[in-house]
Design a protein that fits this description.
The protein has 671 residues and is an alpha+beta fold. Among the domains are: 150 residues, 2-Layer Sandwich (Phosphorylase Kinase, domain 1), CATH 3.30.200.20; 179 residues, Transferase(Phosphotransferase), domain 1 (Orthogonal Bundle), CATH 1.10.510; 99 residues, Serine Threonine Protein Phosphatase 5, Tetratricopeptide repeat, CATH 1.25.40. 46% of the residues lie in helices and 11% in strands. It has 25 helices and 17 strands. The protein has a six-stranded antiparallel sheet, covered by helices on one side. A three-stranded antiparallel sheet has the order 11-13-14. A two-stranded antiparallel ribbon has the order 1-4. The chain is elongated, with a radius of gyration of 34 Å.
């Protein structure tokens, strides 16, 4: 997914005009007045009197001042004897921001960020924090800090000038071009921008720093990349005394009482994505911390994985959110892959790092499934390579579940492997496959690792095995929210829905899985079953046809397709066209002579029965295995088929049975 480059443009054009400066001057509106430390509303009126412009927060006693002072630097000023000022380019929470040129370094463009006022201790502390922390940070997606200088008693951070356009400005431009009505970014573009900035946050987290104040205004798009441009809120994760800066509507709810964390930083990522892609009042009221429901937000109704991603990213409790920027990026990339695949109608397969592949082919190879909803077709979670038992588990042979359990227990008793989370999970999996109760084994995993999503996965599989589809659906749905960018949980949720008889829901999810990755062939078979249940014969045929010719299940899909074409679907008989298509499918199928003969006989017997009952009309123009679709033609074809099968079977009993059938169906001859 590529986003159109953002042109950097001429830096001098960013300097604000006198009219633009005049618009900023004055007092901040009451509904925008919040304490910079704890986020509480301050400076509000009581109905009869206006709110105070200056004062102290009633919650934490932090001083506030909502006067916007005039710019303290003028064009031509040479700050620190080195930085020539061209003028202000913006006004932020900590004061005016100026464009300048570094006369000591090839007149490179720089930005000077000043303090709101000298008496604001938190603003001063934040500026010092920028100088201390960012001097050792080097990342291509984070603005560079060059220097810290003073001028006329005030301090200024000197940083890299980043051209382009902030994402907030892009949103404003879209609103302006839409006659003042909100016009969010295309969801794929919004996701691409967030994916571009997540490595920068991950880098900060590795340095034990948190950014705190991610929002569209602090992300600059330039060329084909993005960059964090305001680092005023950056602090060390273990610094509980530092001033905390954030923005209402983006900041996590626990920050005011518990302080910031990696989880709260990633909360702001989710909120930033939501604000860019949706149209909702996010900074106050009902959705200050929550999201609209899919019933109220069409984008969520259409892309459920996106909704689940944002639910996890902005969960109320920090432990329920993403805990790592890399993990978050991996899941968001999966969500983007799904959206692009569905919008462009082009598959976007990708190997999962968490799940193995679809298992339907293996079951069909063993002739171990009857093409119904089968829990054994679901992918299996991969072993965590960091687990100390990973090598042992990887070397286990593929044998029956009871034998595998014996090998694991022997390994534990002999000391060949130490007990671990992965060992217990594998034992639980084999116990489920063996029809045993794995509840206690899974509970032992919870005691060691309460947030392990694979516990929910295996509980769901056990419920599905025991025909408790409702409980299975609930557990699989929880895993899908944990891993919104993975296809396997969506496939599992579809299977549970089908098992519960919720065929429209199952069909929708199966179709979405196929759209992204057709190699999940169990989804194609499941979709076909759901469409048959809904009376959609040709929709089922289309689903079987979606199985790639390269798949090991392709022949099975074609055989199932032929059967669907000849069976009654919700009391609707097949048409002459369906029967001819079934005949052609059997002729083209890559199967041996005996299987082809049996399948052809099945098609012919159904066709003849339909004609004899009057459900199917005779049609001399339609050919079925080389004979016209008439009772006489089908009898001739069936007699030929029975006699051919009599030559292929292994026992006399089978041979005599087919000969008797041939004689019974033979068209009488009269002389």
């Amino acid at each position: 997914m590529r986003v159109a480059p953002t042109v950097a443009g001429d830096p001098t054009q960013a300097v604000m005009s006198a009219e633009e400066i005049a618009e900023v001057l004055g007092e901040k509106p009451e509904d925008e007045r919040f304490c910079s430390a704890c986020g509480q509303a301050v400076g509000r009126g009581n109905g009869s009197e206006p709110g105070r412009i200056t004062g102290f927060c009633g919650n934490c006693r932090t001083r506030f001042n909502f006067h916007t002072n005039t710019p303290q630097l003028n064009a031509g000023d040479l700050v620190g004897g080195q930085y020539r000022i061209l003028g202000p380019v913006a006004h932020g929470g900590m004061g005016w921001i100026y464009l300048g040129q570094d006369t000591a370094v090839s007149n490179r463009w720089v930005v000077l960020k000043g303090l709101l006022n000298e008496d604001d201790e938190d603003a001063v502390a934040s500026a010092v924090a920028e100088r201390q922390f960012l001097a050792r940070i080097e990342h291509g997606s984070i603005v560079n800090i060059y220097n810290f200088v003073t001028w006329a008693g005030a301090g200024y951070i000197v940083m890299e000038y980043v051209g382009g356009e902030s994402l907030n400005q892009k949103l404003k431009d879209r609103r302006r071009s839409n006659n003042g009505r909100p016009n969010p970014l295309p969801v794929t573009e919004a996701i691409a921008y967030v994916l571009g900035i997540l490595p920068a946050l991950g880098y900060l987290h590795e340095q034990h720093l948190v950014y705190n104040d991610l929002k569209p205004a602090n992300i600059m798009a330039v060329g084909e990349s993005v960059k964090l441009i305001d680092v005023g809120g950056v602090m060390q994760t273990n610094d509980q005394s530092a001033a905390i800066f954030g923005t209402q509507g983006f900041q996590a709810p626990e920050v005011a009482s518990m302080g910031p964390s990696i989880a709260s930083d990633l909360f702001t990522v989710g909120r930033t994505l939501a604000v860019m892609a949706l149209n909702f009042v996010f900074h106050t009221g009902k959705y200050q911390y929550d999201l609209p429901e899919p019933l109220d937000e069409p984008l969520f109704a259409h892309f459920e994985s996106l909704y689940r991603f944002l639910l996890k990213a902005t969960a109320a409790h920090p432990d329920d959110r993403f805990q790592d920027a890399g993990e978050m990026a991996e899941q968001l990339l999966g969500v983007l892959r799904e959206i692009v695949a569905r919008e462009e109608r082009t598959a976007k397969p990708m190997t999962s790092s968490l799940f193995g592949g679809d298992r339907l082919a293996g079951l069909l190879l063993l002739d171990d499934t009857d093409n119904f909803a089968d829990w054994r077709t679901l992918p299996v979670p991969k072993v965590d390579p960091a687990d100390p038992a990973a090598a042992f588990l990887g070397d286990l042979p593929e044998v029956d579940p009871e034998s595998t359990l014996e090998l694991i227990v022997s390994g534990l008793l002999e000391g060949a492997v130490l007990d671990s989370v992965e060992v217990r999970l594998r034992r639980a999996r084999e116990m489920i496959d063996a029809g045993q109760d794995a509840g206690q084994m899974l509970e032992s995993v919870v005691h060691s690792d309460p947030w392990n999503w694979r516990v929910s996965w295996y509980r769901a599989v056990a419920h599905l095995r025991d025909a408790d589809a409702a409980l299975a659906a609930e557990e699989f749905s929880a895993v899908w929210t944990e891993l919104p960018g993975e296809l396997s949980p969506k496939l599992a949720t579809a299977l549970a829905a089908e098992s519960a008889g919720a065929f429209p829901r199952a069909a929708q999810l199966y179709a979405e899985v196929i759209a992204v990755d057709p190699s999940y062939v169990s989804a194609a078979f499941g979709l076909a079953r759901c469409r048959v249940a809904a009376g959609d014969r040709h929709g089922a045929v289309e689903a079987y046809d979606a199985v790639p010719t390269s798949s090991a299940t392709y022949t099975d899909a074609q055989v199932a397709l032929a059967r669907v074409l000849t069976q009654f679907v919700e009391d609707a008989p097949p048409t002459a066209k369906d029967l001819a298509a079934a005949s052609n499918t059997v002729d083209a199928a890559r199967i041996d002579a005996a299987e082809r003969g049996r399948l052809a006989i099945e098609v012919l017997e159904r066709s003849l029965a339909g004609i004899q009952t009057g459900a199917i009309a005779e049609d001399e123009k339609t050919q079925v295995f080389g004979y016209p679709l008439t009772e006489e033609g089908l009898r001739h074809s069936l007699e030929e088929g029975y006699r051919d099968m009599a030559k292929l079977v292994a026992t006399d009993h089978e041979r005599f049975t087919y000969v008797d059938k041939a004689n019974a169906v033979r068209v009488p001859s009269f002389t």
